[in-house]
Specification:
alpha/beta; about 325 residues; 4-stranded mixed beta sheet; single chain; about 25% strand; globular; about 30% helix
């Protein structure tokens, strides 16, 4: 059987090429061979998180695979029919459960029936969009399209201990609606989420005080969370709220990095985003592209497209022929449709 060759070294050379290729292979029923997987990373090839994404995509469609093992830099993937069902995917490390979800969720939207998926691994690891991002940013846009998904969280998982566990319930709808996200967040509607576990709770208070000082967010409420987790962890999440979704900036606490420094990093990113007058932050901009394949007429405004977004666009064009129009509207604002 002939396979479409995908170069995993293209663009930012990370796991984005892999995940997007898997999702599109299933949706468009195309056999693919992905070479040079994650060649742009210090440790090329499939890590636990990426291996789990491949196995998850294969399981939800009964795919035939070759070369799928830890460290592999080349795999073949021939999809079968999408199957609704109850699934359980465990990474075994603090790797991102959200990115595994990103791989299979668009697929399960096309299933003929309801699915329940349980994920185990990292939920807030600082190297990828978190579970909070999925709940408050991505899923609300999906709901805007007419597709609601329910999330039940059992535990959170920080890097490096992991241990997060949560469940997603998907009941596909017959028709999806196009989204148009062009209005910036509502002025004055802000929120700060501070999560700390197995560390002094005062860390969150210090981060919040610095955010208020840096951004003048005196009216922004603070959501303090102190969950029980397998290891220590701290995440600061800034929400700029619109009537459709939250635009989110995240910063993760690290050993040797003060709470004030963590907050300053997050505040700087949020300040830049708000100044652009964009509706969609850079993380969400990347993840909306595949949803735009499911229904015509979608568009959004965002900041300058990142390497992740541009890589996603190239892979989508190769596998589907769909071309995106990326138009610069101001020095800091782009429209993608």
């Amino acid at each position: 059987m002939e396979h479409i060759i995908i170069d995993g070294a293209q663009g930012e050379g990370g796991g984005q090429v892999l995940r997007t290729s898997l999702t599109l292979a299933v949706l468009y029923k195309k056999s693919i061979e992905i070479r040079n997987i994650r060649s742009g990373r210090k440790k090329p090839g499939l890590m636990r998180q990426h291996l789990t994404s491949v196995m998850a995509a294969a399981q939800v469609c009964g795919a035939q695979t070759h070369g799928v093992e830890l460290g592999s830099t080349c795999i073949r993937f021939t999809p079968g029919e999408i199957k609704a069902g109850n699934y359980h995917f465990t990474i075994g490390t603090a790797g991102s459960t959200n990115l595994v979800c990103q791989t299979v969720l668009p697929i399960l939207l096309m299933a003929k029936g309801e699915s329940t998926v349980t994920f185990e691994g990292g939920t807030h690891n600082g190297m990828s969009p978190s579970l909070t991002f999925l709940q408050h940013s991505f899923l609300p846009v999906l709901a805007l399209m007419g597709q609601k998904c329910d999330v039940t969280v059992e535990s959170l998982g920080f890097y490096p201990a992991g241990g997060g566990k949560w469940t997603l319930r998907v009941k596909p709808v017959d028709t999806l609606k196009a989204f148009c996200l062009t209005e910036p967040p509502n002025p004055g509607e802000r929120r700060v989420t501070g999560i700390v576990s197995n560390l002094p709770p005062s860390i969150v208070e210090r981060e919040y005080a610095q955010v208020v000082k840096s951004l003048d967010w005196h009216d922004a409420p603070l959501d303090r969370q102190t969950p029980r987790t397998q290891g220590p962890g701290n995440t600061l999440i800034l929400h700029a709220i619109s009537h459709t979704h939250h635009s989110i900036v995240e910063a993760v606490g690290q050993s040797g990095l003060s709470a004030e420094r963590v907050a300053k990093r997050a505040a700087g990113k949020m300040r830049k985003f708000l100044a652009s007058n964009a509706a969609v932050d850079e993380q969400l901009a990347d993840q909306l592209l595949i949803l735009m394949l499911l229904v015509e007429g979608c568009e959004y405004t965002t900041t300058e497209p990142t390497a992740h977004t541009l890589t996603n666009i190239k892979v989508i064009e190769q596998l589907t022929g769909r071309r995106f129009d990326c138009t610069q509207m101001t020095p800091a604002l782009w429209r993608i449709n």
